[in-house]
Amino acid sequence: MVVRIRLSRFGCNNKPFYRVMAADSRSPRDGKHLEVLGYYNPLPGQDGGKRMGLNFERVKYWLSVGAQPSEPVQRILFRAGLLPPPPMMVMGRKGGPRDTRPVDPMTGRFLSPEKSPVSSQSNASKNETEAATTTA
């Protein structure tokens, strides 16, 4: 039995509300589930209510036993800090030029380029020649 962590839709027309669930991959979207792991509200109220709530211990447990998150749940878990960024988030726009900068897998941020030792040596030699000309 392949377990998926996915969203199950609740709410009214044009007002979706989702539950994050661990379910068998063969069961329908709103069908039988194994466990409710949290919720996700893409349309928060006027008071700016919570958008998502997750039971982190249970999500970590299901991921540790091999449950596969769906793409929307993978993005939610990345925002919560439980997963590295999905590959499409690093690429940018679909079909656009790919960004070749290295990305930190835990934060999803671009790593700052380190100075190469060759450039620091050339800067040091320039500074030495400038110092020698000013003293002479």
TrEMBL record:
Keyword annotations of the record: Chloroplast, Plastid, Ribonucleoprotein, Ribosomal protein, Transit peptide
Compositional bias annotation for Polar residues: 117-136
GO MF entries: structural constituent of ribosome
GO CC annotations, alphabetized: chloroplast; mitochondrion; small ribosomal subunit
Renumbered residue ranges of the record's region Disordered: 87-136
Main location: plastid
Annotated compartments: Plastid, Chloroplast
Transmembrane segments: none
Organism domain of life: Eukaryota
Gene Ontology terms describing biological process: mitochondrial translation
PANTHER family, A to Z: 30S RIBOSOMAL PROTEIN S16, SMALL RIBOSOMAL SUBUNIT PROTEIN BS16M_BS16C
Similarity remark: Belongs to the bacterial ribosomal protein bS16 family.
Protein name in UniProt: Ribosomal protein S16
Species this protein is from: Salix udensis
